[in-house]
Design a protein that fits this description.
- It is built from 5 helices and no strands.
- By secondary structure, it is mostly helical.
Length: 180
């Protein structure tokens, strides 16, 4: 008759060390919370800049040319999209990396805020960056009459195309990855 090997029994001291290490690693996610609070502060600063731009826009609207009005509106949209981008990062980052948010206590809570996973966050970020880039290119085209710099225009269009292609590749890779 052959002897059965004794079942493996982990050392209880090592198990406590392992559990303690896992607890520290798990709770380290809260170190991200100040980053998200900092982004909320940056959102407030961006709002201040938006209000200053809006005030300037209103003051000069009566004497402005149509192209200046369009450029002013595009600048306001650009800042607004940047604010949206910050908000997406704050909510989805907090939800995905720090702690789940209970939307039940907030009846007007947007449904998307608790449903954006990391892949969705990447797509939303890139889509916002593409939109912001497109506005920059459009603003440059609107200013062709006053200052034309072919090299700068080429860089703006080239960078925008890189963002668009990157977003397309990311979306395709996420789709192919979810099919398997």
């Amino acid at each position: 008759m052959s002897e059965q090997p004794a079942p493996y029994r982990p050392n209880p001291h090592l198990k406590r060390v392992e559990h303690g290490l896992e607890s520290v690693l798990f709770n380290s996610r809260w170190l991200l919370a100040p980053f998200y609070l900092g982004l909320v502060v940056s959102l407030a600063v961006l709002m201040l800049k938006f209000m200053m731009m809006l005030w300037e826009f209103i003051l000069h609207a009566a004497a402005a040319k149509e192209s200046d009005i369009i450029l002013g509106v595009l600048s306001l949209i650009d800042v607004s999209l940047t604010g949206n981008l910050i908000l997406i990062v704050v909510f989805s980052g907090y939800e995905n990396f720090v702690s789940k948010i209970d939307p039940g206590a907030h009846p007007d809570w947007p449904e998307w805020m608790t449903k954006v996973d990391f892949a969705g966050l990447k797509q939303k970020l890139l889509a916002s960056i593409v939109a912001i880039s497109a506005i920059q290119v459009l603003k440059a085209f609107m200013n062709l009459d006053s200052t034309f710099d072919a090299q700068k225009m080429g860089w703006l269009v080239g960078i925008h195309i890189v963002f668009v292609v990157s977003a397309l590749i990311l979306a395709l890779s996420d789709r192919w990855g979810s099919d398997h």
